[in-house]
Amino acid sequence: MNKIAILTSGGDSPGMNAAVRAVTRAGINFGYEVIGIRYGYRGLIEGDFVDIRSSDVSGIIQRGGTILKTARSERFMSAEGRAIAANNLKEHGVDTLIVIGGDGTFRGATVIAAEHKIRVVGIPATIDNDLIGSDETIGYDTALNTAMEAIDKIRDTADAHDRLFFIEVMGRHTGFIALETGLASGAEMIILPEEIKNIDEIKSSLSEILKVHERSTLIVVAEGDEAGGATKICGQLEKDFSKYDMRVCILGHIQRGGSPTAHDRVLASRLGYEAVKAIHEGKSEVMVGVINNECKITPLQETFGKIKKVNLDLLSMARILR
Ligand code: ATP
Description:
This protein has helices at about 15-30, 40-45, 80-90, 105-115, 140-160, 175-185, 200-210, 230-235, 260-280, 300-305, 310-320, and strands at about 5-10, 35, 50, 95-100, 120-125, 165-170, 190, 215-220, 245-250, 285-290, 295-300. By secondary structure, the chain is an alpha/beta fold.
């Protein structure tokens, strides 16, 4: 078959459109017909298929979000849902699927490939940067810059009032965004899921910082699970630090939107092209990534099997530089 289907799935990330564009144009160049599936795995089950021509992807390289839309699908988690999805692909004459998304998307792709002999190639696109096999995922750099610009603005108002701000950024299981935005914005403290501290440790670190620090204080917190989060941490510190004017700011979905940075557009273009090349070379159940500026192929299962580690040396460095 000379058809490639493509979908975007899970949380959106800036640069997904650039990847859709690259897959479409590289695919057509390699002689494939490209079919878009709207709303991720949900659309795969519901048969929401559209033909994509080269002109359909004009003017999208600079747009955030995804023209193919995205979704999370409970039904795809069941064997019955995946059988319907595979059947829809076969009815459209497609046996090759490129999935653009994060670890959940790749887990789903791995299962449907094994169950129904669908060829799959993954393109890593998530602001969390939590996939092994690529130094960076599409959208991470844009999210970093968006969060950093927001934190810079908070610094201005915090400085004006000598306030102490807890700023929550995205990253439930991994603190890539918190670590690098904290570093880039000169935050006085960074709290990561990789280095869980109990509230007493946080209190004593903060006391140390406030002893020598006389202006505004910014604490960047990864959203964390139920044990963490900026609101909860701030609430637990209110009593002990009552002489400070403390505020919480949750950056939230602002981090997902916006025009992708040049870095993300280039990364998405490279990975879209490499994904088509991988398919052309007969590869399947792999993810394309960039490591040390070279394109690399990693078995899909290895990309989400282990937790990708943040560089904790940067955290030690941030403590010296604050
Ligand atoms: P992000 O990291 O940005 O949230 P993601 O790809 O990890 O993106 P998820 O919501 O975790 O987003 O996964 C997307 C979809 O993949 C799910 O809604 C579900 O349909 C499918 N999926 C996830 N895990 C599995 C699994 N173990 N088996 C089958 N399908 C899965």
